[in-house]
């Protein structure tokens, strides 16, 4: 039996109506790919983690204030810069290897 698992932070991400809509649309999408034969066996499970029992970047999340605040924005900005630097370094190394091979 196929199982589609969706995880949310409880009372933060989706309303009851949205969750019901997700169950229908996720099933329909799955059936659209694999065929109607799987519909009766397709389970959609929504797991909800209570507020305060999750975290991001090592920071426990009691609510969403951190995600919308300056501290998290700084973490994201630093991470993005590290990724840009790494990509630039890989491109430079590839260019150097190409030059050395020529």
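Q: What amino acid sequence fits the structure above?
A:
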């Amino acid at each position: 039996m196929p199982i589609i698992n969706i995880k949310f932070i409880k009372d933060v991400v989706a309303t009851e109506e949205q969750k019901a809509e997700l169950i229908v649309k996720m099933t329909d999408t799955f059936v659209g790919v694999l065929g109607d034969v799987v519909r009766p066996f397709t389970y959609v499970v929504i797991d909800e983690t209570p507020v305060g029992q999750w975290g991001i970047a090592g920071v426990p999340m009691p609510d969403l204030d951190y995600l919308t605040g300056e501290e998290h924005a700084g973490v994201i900005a630093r991470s993005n810069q590290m990724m840009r630097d790494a990509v630039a370094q890989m491109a430079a190394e590839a260019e150097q290897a190409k030059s050395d091979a020529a």
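Q: And what stands out in the fold?
A: The CA atoms of residues 10 and 48 lie 5 Å apart.
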